Amino acid sequence: MKASVIEMFLVLLVTGIHSNKDVTKKIKRPKFTVPQINCDVKAGKIINPEFVVKCPAGCQDPKYHVYGTDVYASYSSVCGAAIHSGVLDNSGGKILVRKVAGQSGYKGSYANGVQSLSLPRWRESFVVSEGKPPKGVTYPSALTYSSPKSPAAKAGEPTKAYQKPPVPGTTAQAVTPLQLTGATATEVTLTSLPKPSPSTGSTTSSLRPQPVGHRSWELDLWSTGSYASGHNSPHANPGEMDLWQPGSVLLDAGFVPKEELSTQSLEPVSQGDPNCKIDLSFLIDGSSSIGKRRFRIQKQFLADVAQTLDIGPGGPLMGVVQYGDNPAAQFSLRTHMNSRDLKTAIDKITQRGGLSNAGRAISYVTKNFFSKANGNRGGAPNVAVVIVDGWPTDKVEEASRLARESGINIFFITVEGATENEKQYVTEPNFSNKAVCRTNGFYSLNVQSWFSLRKTVQPLLKRVCDTDRLACSKTCWNSADIGFVIDGSSSVGTGNFRTVLQFVANISKEFEISETDTRVGAVQYTYEQRLEFGFDDYHTKSDILNAIKRVGYWSGGTSTGAAINYALEQLFKKSKPNKRKLMILITDGRSYDDVRIPAMVAHHKGVTTYAIGVAWAAQDELEVIATHPASDHSFFVDEFDNLYKFVPKVIRNICTEFNSQPRN
């Protein structure tokens, strides 16, 4: 009798298992389609922590409120925020949205036709980027809403539980009752219900879809043994445990108690280290010669950097570009807003192979990486750290020069550099010294072995975070072409002319002078004009000061208008596009010719003109020559011996104007 009962039980058990397998085989993987939302859908209404959606056209309308800049409060319109951030225009399109922690405050701003508003604090935030998912990763075709009456939800469309996007090479699937093979009937019903019954007293009956990442609830569920599968529970049936499949735990599907959904309490996430507010790009060597093992060491180095840096919107932001034959951005500055997410992204980077074209990668970064759309904040220094295995296979000098002139601080880390016997194969000797803007060792590090690379984390970060020493960033002191236009007429006299030259020298020595920093040139004029030295003639401060001393007094009439035209042609026509053009004109009398048209031409060409008059100079002419507002750009001195008193004021006005303008 006992044997027959056991046989019947085994038959039923085997039949049940095969039945479940047959049903499971019939489940087809759903085809991924990008969900569409309306302009008025707020991020807080969508429970998924990360998702791709398609926005319609016309979301630039001010009725769709946006709160914050770059990082937005979840009370904002998703599509409105995408337009404000520059990811979309008013024609709509696909975007990738990622939830982040709530902020203590959100600053409003006007950008891309959208005026965002300020907000003191909010419980949850989000960031927006281009809607191109990483290769091999799919996102939900149907979003999970906190309310089933969402304006984006189609009639009759079921609300699906969100599951964390998988690693590359896998496909995200919603958890279904059929996957929970060993669950009880009650548990299966709960996973498919959008609204659990409040009358049920069990722990699992109050579970609802919720964003992944609430670590405090994870700990509670682990400690109470609240696995839906019954793992670690004293009442678990051992026979059921073996039937569970990896990934079928309700916790992994993003379920937490209903009370947690209503409070939306989030882990506090750092705003970033304000003492290291930089926009940082790593250019990593993905060439074939580096090999898989050393590439992993390079990734570990990046992870160590990410761990050490306190990444956040108020501190450093970091992106990565990998280069081989050609460069490719792995992720931009705005993609990851904390160190934890950054380390996860670094771990997923795969090697590209090919040559080691670092010069091409530097050009790519200059043209594409440090853009507003990719998260460049303007006020934060731009830093690019190039890691090279041995030596580059192309030249880096010209690409690096253009990068530095764009305000990018280039750092070079050379690992296992060429030996004496190998130097004959190096494409560009002394490439690291040619790439950086200072050859004092501050911007270049030589690492003897890949196994020693991680020892350079602290020395490197100490340098890149020392923003006062980042000489390649655009500052008031290193980003101008300054042209002095000096009156050498007879009324000045030899002694006063030497005083004028001392005034010119006192201003010049305040700036950082080099071929890539501030450059100085000078024109002297009477009835005629003469180029004393041009922007390309001297590249050190001492050479400039010596050149000023050597200028000889000319003597003659005063044709200031002609002198302005001459300076535009002989000096500023050769100015670099990314340089501020500053003309400082010193005169002691009224011009014999008209100054109005030459001054207008100078202003039209973007030359900021400072007019300094001494003794008999006509103040009405000074105001015509000076850039508007004249009160900030024209000065009158009663006698030559008092010129030195105006040096600090001229410098202060130059720097005040620079600091009020957008940088980079």
Automatic annotation (TrEMBL):
Region (Disordered): 147-170, 190-213
GO annotations of cellular component type: interstitial matrix
Presence of the UniProt keyword Ubl conjugation in the record: no
GO biological process annotation, one example: positive regulation of cell-substrate adhesion
Alphabetized UniProt keyword annotations: Disulfide bond, Extracellular matrix, Glycoprotein, Neurogenesis, Repeat, Secreted, Signal
Domain VWFA: 279-464, 481-650
Keyword Disulfide bond: yes
Location in or out of the cell: Secreted, Extracellular space, Extracellular matrix
Domain LCCL: from-to ranges: 33-126
Biased composition regions of type Low complexity, renumbered to the chain: 190-207
Any one Gene Ontology molecular-function term assigned to this protein's record: glycosaminoglycan binding
Residues in the signal sequence: 1-19
Subunit structure: Binds dermatan sulfate and chondroitin sulfate.
Protein name (record): Vitrin
Organism for this UniProt entry: Ailuropoda melanoleuca
